[in-house]
Amino acid sequence: MRIALINENSQAAKNDVVLAALKKVVEPMGYAVDNYGMYAADDAAQLTYVQCGILGALLLNSGAADFVVTGCGTGEGAMLAMNSFPGVICGHVEDPVDAYTFAHVNDGNAVAIPFAKGFGWGGELNLEYIFEKLFGFGHGQGYPPERREPEMRNKRILDEVRAKTLRPLVDSLKDIDQELVRGAVAGGQFQGLFFAACKDQAIADYVKGLL
């Protein structure tokens, strides 16, 4: 699994803390982590939580990432932005129970974490426990176990509904202010990470056109 980390501007200073917790947990599991920034509060490329959604959608729909970890002050804005796009099911995760139940009940591909609200003493430990429960026990197995079949059925229904109600990603992005989209892919390491991992030529061509 390839996991992408994205931080927006208000919480960019925590990028190192989140990255260290994520890598500590998932690299021993054999997973790769790509850090798309922001890397510091004064980065030239400033990402809003809306642009985190755009960037996350590009990574997931292109196959450049299998899972996205993002967030903002409360996690709410990043979650809403991520869920605005096709190919993304993003959960709001505050603690390890949220992480475990989201992985097994909702079987999504992204999480939005509050990196300011409630993030005090021991915040990095909470992150580590979240990542352990999110990535260490599989996905889509249901919880509690006796609810496995109806939960899997509901997830299939949700996927079918979203396929009917959401347009293809590139069509959607072309109708958005292109400067907003361009800003989402302006990070210093974006091109080196994205194009090496992208598996969708149409999305790659669109991004190249932006750049």
Describe the structure.
With 211 residues, the chain is an alpha/beta fold. 50% of the residues lie in helices and 10% in strands. The chain has ten helices and five strands. The chain has helices at 15-26, 49-62, 76-82, 96-106, 123-135, 148-165, 169-174, 178-184, 190-197, 201-210, and strands at 2-5, 32-35, 67-72, 90-92, 110-114. A five-stranded parallel beta sheet has the order 2-1-3-5-4, with helices on both faces. Helix 1 packs across helix 5 (123-135) and helix 4 packs parallel to helix 5. The radius of gyration is 16 Å and the shape is globular. The model has no long low-confidence stretch (mean pLDDT 96).
**General form:** globular
- Largest sheet features: 5 strands, parallel
- What letter string, H or E per element, gives the SSE order? EHEHEHEHEHHHHHH
Estimate what percentage of residues fall within beta strands. 5-15%
Strand order of the largest sheet: 2-1-3-5-4
Low-pLDDT ranges: none
Alpha-carbon distance between the two ends: 27 Å
The structural class is: alpha/beta
Number of strands: 5
Helix content: 40-55%
What is the overall pLDDT average? Answer: 96
What's the helix count? 10
- Integer-rounded radius of gyration: 16 Å
